[in-house]
Amino acid sequence: MIGAASSPDVATADVAPGAATENFPVALRILPVRYRDALLVIYRVARTIDQLGDAAPGDRVAALTAFRADLHRLRDGGQPSEQVLRDLAPQVTRFALPLQCFDDLIEANLIDQRVTRYADFDALLDYCALSAHPIGRLVLAVFGQSTPARVGWSDSVCAALQVLEHCQDVVEDHAASRVYLPADQLAEAGLTDTTMLRPANTRALRGVVLRQVATARELLDAGTPLVGQLRGWARIAVAGYVAGGLATADAIDHTGGDIVTDAPVKPSRITTLRHGIRLLLTRRA
């Protein structure tokens, strides 16, 4: 889901309670107000969905289903009851935001209520298609720069960010009985979901984490052409997201994949800025 571990990013802004603890905030202080306001409310809706799926008391499936019904009320031209969706309504009109993206985020959280393990990386990517891809697609919609090719690159970037977040949150997720490290990779390292955090298995777990980080880097590399294809404020914003991912990968690699001792692993602001500047200075494709 949208980040849960702390990490400085390029020119981030606190967008809601807990925003400073987000991996890849979707609002940058330097953006014009019209873009920033739209991204802020998208962020708030996404965080609300996550909170319903992760922390709502009682029946979380019922809570998510009720929120989906309210979203559909907005989609059908009605007045939603949730304030955050009422705040979203004018942005949907202004930027033609695809409401299916929010539906997908809800579906990802519903999956979290019944699926807590993933057999292999392909299964994890299927989950990312619902939990991560929608955010990038909404960002492109806000800037009015969606094309099929750009959406494809964005999906790669967002999947990478999700994989990196899973690496950062291994301990936290395990405490919630969720494991996002592929089961086949754990098995190859001689681990199971019940033994992976034992001190005797630290080295093996590090190997699995580093393997995930390497795959995330491949996804980031595959999506990096997006930065060069964008113009104006969209280019700056997306460069910030990619830079945050690269800096997070660097930080995890720097620990040798030890996401237990140093949890949560945080990228440095300097490293993030360095990657961001490099991306922005790269000649546009």
TrEMBL record:
Q: Read off the PANTHER family from this record.
A: BIFUNCTIONAL LYCOPENE CYCLASE/PHYTOENE SYNTHASE
* InterPro entries assigned: Isoprenoid_synthase_dom_sf, Squ/phyt_synthse, Trans_IPPS_bact-type
Q: What is this protein called?
A: Squalene synthase HpnC
Concerning SUPFAM superfamilies, the annotation shows: Terpenoid synthases
In terms of Pfam families, this protein maps to: SQS_PSY
Which terms in the Gene Ontology molecular function aspect does this entry carry? geranylgeranyl diphosphate synthase activity
Q: Which organism is it from?
A: Flexivirga oryzae
